[in-house]
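User: My collaborator sent over this chain with a note saying "see what the structure looks like." That's all I know about it. Can you take a look?
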Amino acid sequence: MPSKSKAAAADNRFSLTRADASEQIAYEIRRHIERQGLLPGDRIGTEQELAAEFGVSRPTLREALRLLAGSHLIRASQGRGGGIFVANTAGEGMGRHMSEAIGAMLATESVSLYELLEARMVLEVPLAGLAAAGAGPEIIERLEQAIADAEGHRPGSETFNAADSRFHQTIAEASGNDVLIAFTRWILDVLLPSLIDYIGPAVSAEDILAQHRAILRAIRRGQSTGAERAMRDHLEHLAEIVRTLEAGSGS
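Assistant: Without extra context I'll predict from the sequence alone. Here is the result:
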């Protein structure tokens, strides 16, 4: 009777014949990164080391690494001290991958800003409620600081944009849900800059900050329904500006 280790190895070989080996290895490397708690910049190993560890050929391993690099999870470095390194956490990698896809859709006009605002409504309204239910003093302080940093600056300026992004990202982080945080990242990376570029001249900084303060008040008081309502009002305000500009341009 084969030992448990030999049986496990046989089962593993069998699974690799049933599924694409490179995808299986990419999955195993992702699991390794998560289990070990590896962070961006941490070294995973060399091609030779990883191929030996997973018992696959170098071409199969390279294809797995290509898949991971395409998801922005790893990067390769050549030369002395080189190897395969973590590029982003899983959530950050997913956010970047989605950001690039949405950016391409915007560039080809296959999706509109208004459609993306609708998606943002579906995502960020419940996130505000989750933040109100679980936000601690650190989250409240970060939201207050984001509002303070935006004061005195116009929408579209680097300072205002950065503070606006931090405000919404902090609300997402308060949910504690990595998938929701990653989804929010594409909003901040792609939609928010495009939106501000489009509506910047027509939007009032004081209106935006007043809406942010209303969201913050509800979160500070732990009022989930109030936070959701305030976030909905904020996003509907932006959507109305987009509709007005599009009607004026005849599009």
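A starting point for your reply to your collaborator: The chain is about 75% helix and 5% strand.
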